[in-house]
């Protein structure tokens, strides 16, 4: 059997392109034991160590730590398992960077304060259960003192509490940030309380209100299908019929007080809420959403008159 060529550490450095200082470090750490020693007690290496150095370098460039590399070289951990561990770490790091980037983008939309940045940082780092708790707290505030149906409320919470993956996209994270900001806005909470009070008021003729809503949505769908603008005279007529029917169902006159109450129930952020949920889940919005948005725009324009 031919004798294997012995390489000094300098020759090994030239073969591999790795500095002598680094090779000495690897050797001292037990990653690169010498194949032997010269008569002057200098470290000597052979082709097996060349291969070993290349493996160490490849794993280091992949970000694998020295302790894990030591296990791979000692056959205490397979190369595949080591790479899987590193991949998981890289993916977690990428997800963390995505959350940071989303928070920075949200902060830069305005003139941020330190408090804003801390809040955004916290919001992006919440777990799925913590995100659900934020949404639950919002519905609890809306329903406080209002006889809201418990099953309906639980369904709304589940529908709007999407479980974001660990590798959520920037768009998903930004949607969550915007949604959390809407839910934390006291004016939105107040307006949704008005909507809840109107919806769950036992003195309202609910059958008449539901009939008015169904007729208005059907008219909006038909008009929207024909390309009618929600600010047109035809759209305003649809909105007016609904507003008068809603006032009647509430046992109210269409006066300034009722108009103001209706304005609050038409907060555009209520529709934006579901747009953001859709962005988080990746599920498309239903056609009924577009009908509702068209009708909401028509009602808002009518109430401006």
TrEMBL record:
Transmembrane segments: none
HTH merR-type domain boundaries: 6-75
Pfam families in UniProt: MerR_1
Keywords: DNA-binding
PROSITE patterns (UniProt xref): HTH_MERR_2 (PS50937)
Listed InterPro entries: DNA-bd_dom_put_sf (IPR009061), MerR-type_HTH_dom (IPR000551), MerR_fam (IPR047057)
Alphabetical list of SUPFAM superfamilies matching this protein: Putative DNA-binding domain
GO molecular function: DNA binding; DNA-binding transcription factor activity
Coiled coil: none
Protein's name according to its UniProt entry: MerR family transcriptional regulator
Biological source species: Polyangium jinanense
């Amino acid at each position: 059997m031919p004798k294997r060529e012995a390489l000094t550490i300098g020759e090994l450095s030239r073969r591999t392109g790795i500095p002598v200082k680094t090779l000495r470090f690897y050797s001292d750490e037990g990653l690169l034991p010498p194949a032997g020693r010269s008569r002057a007690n200098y470290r000597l290496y052979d082709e097996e160590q060349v291969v070993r150095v290349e493996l160490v370098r490849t794993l280091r460039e992949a970000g694998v730590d020295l302790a894990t590399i030591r296990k791979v070289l000692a056959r205490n951990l397979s190369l595949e398992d080591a790479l899987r561990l590193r991949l998981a770490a890289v993916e977690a790091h990428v997800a963390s960077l995505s959350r940071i980037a989303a928070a920075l983008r949200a902060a830069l939309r305005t003139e941020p304060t330190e408090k804003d940045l801390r809040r955004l940082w916290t919001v992006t780092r919440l777990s799925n259960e913590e995100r659900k708790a934020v949404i639950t707290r919002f519905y609890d505030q809306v329903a406080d003192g209002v006889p809201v149906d418990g099953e309906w409320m639980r369904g709304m919470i589940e529908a709007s509490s999407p479980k974001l993956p660990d590798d959520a996209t920037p768009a998903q994270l930004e949607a969550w940030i915007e949604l959390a900001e809407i839910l934390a806005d006291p004016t939105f909470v107040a307006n949704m309380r008005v909507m809840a009070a109107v919806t769950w008021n036992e003195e309202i003729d609910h059958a008449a209100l539901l009939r008015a809503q169904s007729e208005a949505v059907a008219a909006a769908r038909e008009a929207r299908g024909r390309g009618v603008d929600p600010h047109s005279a035809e759209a305003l007529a649809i909105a007016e019929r609904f507003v008068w029917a809603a006032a009647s169902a509430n046992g109210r006159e269409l006066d300034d007080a009722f108009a103001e109450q209706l304005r609050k129930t038409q907060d555009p952020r209520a529709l934006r809420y579901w747009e953001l949920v859709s962005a988080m889940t990746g599920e498309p919005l239903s056609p009924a959403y577009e009908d509702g948005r068209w009708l909401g725009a028509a009602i808002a324009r009518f109430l401006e008159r």
